[in-house]
Write a structure and sequence with these properties.
The protein is mainly α. Helices cover 45% and strands 5% of the residues. The chain has two domains: 1-60; 61-109, no CATH class.
């Protein structure tokens, strides 16, 4: 399966699983809802861009966790960016492993609003 096909499969599953649908997925990906609607529409020829496909895979892809050896969503890996879970020693050990995880550098967080310079927008002025 190519990256674009895998990203489209992940995108369809994410939209189906999210309570807010396309709007919720768009928020997590840092893109506008209309972009997702156009990509998912069978009547619109807008293709899935490589940049958006990479973003989808980084957000909704599955990796094998080095700490537990189990499959985990990349989205779940973002918990390592949070505060130390001091309530549970096992959770602290997992949090420490996550802080040194090789997949940590592959994850991105996207701003909820574009910067004044226009960085992070999917739109191009061509």
């Amino acid at each position: 399966m190519t990256d674009l096909a895998a990203a489209m499969t992940l995108l369809l599953a994410a939209v189906a699983a999210d309570r807010s649908g396309k709007a919720g997925v768009a928020r997590k990906l840092g893109v506008s809802r209309p972009i997702l609607a156009r990509v998912l529409s069978p009547n619109d020829p807008t293709p899935l861009s490589a940049k958006l496909a990479k973003n989808i895979i980084q957000t909704y892809g599955v990796v094998i966790c080095p700490a537990t050896g189990e499959a985990a969503l990349v989205e779940d890996c973002r918990r390592a960016a949070g505060p130390v879970p001091t309530h549970n020693p096992a959770a602290v050990r997992l949090w420490r492993h996550c802080r040194a995880c090789p997949f940590r550098n592959q994850r991105k967080t996207f701003p909820t609003q574009p910067s004044p310079e226009g960085e992070g927008n999917e739109r191009s002025n061509t």
